Here is the input.
Amino acid sequence: MNNQYQPQNTKDALRYLEKLVNQYLNAPLTPEIIAYNQKQINYLRQQVIPVAQQQEHNPQRAQQAALMAQQLAQWQTQKLAGLPTPTKMRHFKLETPHPVKYQHQRGKSAQPGNYRAQHR
Here is the structure.
């Protein structure tokens, strides 16, 4: 993690990591991004999870950090395999993009008309 930023607690660290991950999630895969992603995973597993469990006594936050590390590892393997990958991390989870649903308007003939609008 960046040496300039020191998080206040584990939630702050997770939020900061989420912001960093969203910056490189859609970028083309390079060896630098793979190394950086691995560094983030190691940071989560070696520093955030133990602090959440032992110092903050917050098992829920430790689970969130573990899930985040697992999903980052899964993202990396999917990206290396050329499979479609999630495009955004939100609430410490990777979200798959939802397909766009287009709304279409009905034509005038499909709408129920009143007696004055009828063609004779």
User: Anything to note?
Assistant: DSSP finds three helices and two strands in the chain.
